Amino acid sequence: SQYLRQQVDKIRKDLTDQIDFRLHNLVDDFTAILNSQEERPKALRPVPTAGPVRQGKVFVPRESRLTEMFQLPEFQTIYNIFIVVLIILSLQTLYLDISEKPLIEALNFELMTRSFGQVGVTATVWTCMFLQTLLVFPLFTFWANRRHGVSLFSVLSYIGYMLTIFFWPCAAAIHYALPPASAFIVGCEQLRLMMKIHSFVRENVPAVTYKLRLKHTTSIDMKQLGLDFGTYVYFLFAPTLIYRSQYPRTPKIRWNVVVENFTHVVASLFYTYYIFERYCVPEFLHTGVDSSTRDPGFFKLKSLLSATFLSMVPGTVVMLLAFFAILHSWLNAFAEMMRFADRQFYKDWWNCRSFATYYRTWNVVVHD
User: Fold this and answer.
1) How many Cβ atoms from other residues are within 10 Å of residue 5's Cβ?
2) Which of 101, 134, 283, 342 could covalently link to 105 via disulfide, CB atoms 3.0 to 4.6 Å apart?
3) pLDDT at site 44
4) What is the pTM (predicted TM-score) of this model?
5) Which residue in 41, 30, 3, 49 sits closest to 206, CA to CA?
6) What one-character DSSP code corresponds to residue 149?
7) What pLDDT, on a 0 to 100 scale, did the predictor assign at position 125?
């Protein structure tokens, strides 16, 4: 009886969280649609398509949650506190480095420059990945004009193409021994471009096959489907992983917003550097080393647990900085440069009461 009661309570809690999440999304989307109809009615006109109507995300003009919250004086106070802490950490790190090292060595940011090393190799790998991604559009056009629907050969060719863009950047990162930050950039860009390719193919294959069946022809005009190379290139840089032939756009680019968001990214990088330099590196520098014999093979569970618990607070701050730098500042900067109006890259995950809801709301770009 007790076990059944616990299971019923668990099911009831999960069901309540699911209903709350769905209602929250429904209200947010409905409010965004109403606001966009009042402000930009043309942005919501349905885009004509040549294929069957697909259910999916509806893009509407809206700001990010933090952008709206930054307008509130109460939240602006928290933002100012973070700036003050950054200044204090900078002064503290600078003073300690100058007192321990020569001035030139103290100002070279060794940890950061070492983590972001081999910039030329990283840029070359990214360029090759991007060129391989651009090749998808002419290959897709060739398939649309030469094939009757989806064949086994086309599916195997697509899988092989995705496997090549998956393996060779990893092999390049290992071969050139890219440092952590550079390897992280290559891995993230690799995953982003792969998801972009899959979205482009997944959204347009049904439209092509539908058009071929409808007209009983072996060739097709890509422009009739709203597909052109410029739209594809725009999609590769737009902060979304769902391909559409049109997106709601802002009237103009506000370059002050672009500069402000990129400044937040740079500040977050230095914030992370100071946290690692002051709190993480000193803690793990001698972990696993016997203080008396300097034996690197020495290991104590107590020292490992101590280092782990002492790093929990810095690790949490770094996680928040990564969220702010990437999912808010970086994506908003590119959204502004691309005049991309739908900027709901995340929701208020900090108010979630379950991990399932948090997982759906902290990264809306991927979850959609």
Assistant:
1) 9
2) 101
3) 39
4) 0.77
5) 49
6) S
7) 93
Cα distances from 118 to residues 23, 176, 308, in angstroms, run 48, 9, 30
CB-based burial label for 300 (10 Å; 0-12, 13-18, 19+): exposed
Q: Which residues of the chain have pLDDT under 50?
A: 36-51, 53
- On the CB side of 55, CA atoms within 13 Å amount to 0
Q: What's the pLDDT at 282?
A: 78
Whose CA is closest to 366, among 202, 188, 242, 243?
242
Q: What is the DSSP string of 113-180?
A: HHHT--HHHHHHHHHHHHHHHHTHHHHHHHHHHH-SS--HHHHHHHHHHHHHHHHHHHHHHHHTT--H
The type of residue at 347 is: K
Question: Torsions phi, psi of 62, nearest 5?
Answer: -165, 155
Distance CA 193, CA 202 (A): 14
The C-alpha atoms of residue 285 and residue 296 are separated, in whole angstroms, by 11
Mean pLDDT of the chain: 79
- The 3-state DSSP class for residue 351 equals helix
Of the candidates 76, 69, 70, 63, the one whose C-alpha atom is nearest the C-alpha of residue 28 is: 63
CA distance 255 to 297: 54
Left (φ > 0), alpha (ψ -120 to 50) or beta: where does 288 sit? left
Give residue-wise pLDDT tens across range 127-156.
999 999 999 998 888 887 776 567 788 889
What is the identity of the amino acid at 68? E
Buried b / exposed e across 25-55, counting CB within 10 Å, b at 16+? eeeeeeebeeebeeebeebeeeeebbbeeee
Cα–Cα distance, 322 to 320 (Å, whole number): 5
